[in-house]
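Structure ticket #2291
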Amino acid sequence: MHKFHNMVNKHKNIKECPITILDQYNDMSLADVYNKFIKVFSSRGNIRMLADTMHRNMLIQEITSWLIANKHIFYRPAIIGSK
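Resolution: structure written out below.
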């Protein structure tokens, strides 16, 4: 995730961030992060070619499939009775 974050920053000419940038995701819902990413990634604001759209759609399908297959990694069991 950190590498992906910095790849996006590099593409946007933004400086790389330390790994602590991922701390912002600790208390976020994976579903909310995913939905926001898909919304932004799917935007058609500056897509110049049909091939770009097709490539983005394929990546979205791959990301979605990976998340579904690996959802157990993101599961946080509830802690009962701790104070």
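Closing remark: Residues 7 and 16 are 8 Å apart (CA to CA).
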